[in-house]
Amino acid sequence: SAEGKLPGLLEKVGRWWDSSHEIDVAGLSEEDNLLVLGECKFWSVPVGVNILTELEQKAAFVNWHTGKRNTVYIIFSVNGYSEELAAVGKIREDVILAPFVAGKETGLANCSNEGGVCAWRLNGNSW
Q1: Residue 36 — φ and ψ, nearest 5°?
Q2: Percent of the chain at pLDDT above 70?
Q3: Model pTM?
Q4: Which of 38, 49, 68, 90 could cysteine-pair with 74, CB 3.0–4.6 Å?
Q5: End-to-end CA distance of the chain
Q6: Is the pLDDT of residue 2 over 60?
Q7: Least confident span in 11-20, 73-82, 97-106
Q8: How far is residue 123's CA from residue 47's CA, in Å, rounded to a whole number?
Q9: SS3 category, 31
């Protein structure tokens, strides 16, 4: 959201995939009817709006409370975001661009890429 906060508390966090699609982060809250879908990028360049578009397209394949859920998209990037994606993140309530400061907890997200494993923590939930 524009404030960078989830509109609920996640009860389950993990990954999601089917035979054709994969989403790095999937979290849900039955109580809040909330689905959080995210992508983690360790790119050497800023992440563009195309990653958000792809994530939104993948969301259509997630069969959980379809048509009734509140979906929030979160993108983690170690090298920031394009100007276009940053602008989208400022105005859309359903988009979170997780801040990253190397080796430092930001309050919203923390990232580790030790041993080739992407580990993020969001509001106390780890994946």
Answers
A1: -110, 125
A2: 75
A3: 0.80
A4: 38
A5: 20
A6: no
A7: 97-106
A8: 22
A9: coil
Token readout for 56 is 């939104």
3-state SS assignment for residue 53: helix
* CA distances for 126 relative to 8, 20, 33, 57, 91, angstroms: 16, 25, 20, 24, 27
Q: What is the mean pLDDT of residues 89-99?
A: 92
Bridge partners (DSSP) listed for residue 98: 76
pLDDT score, position 3:
54
The phi and psi torsions of 126 (rounded to 5 degrees) equal -115, 150
* CA gyration radius, the chain: 14
- Rounded to whole angstroms, the Cα distance separating 25 from 2 reads 20
48-62-46 Cα angle (round to 5): 10
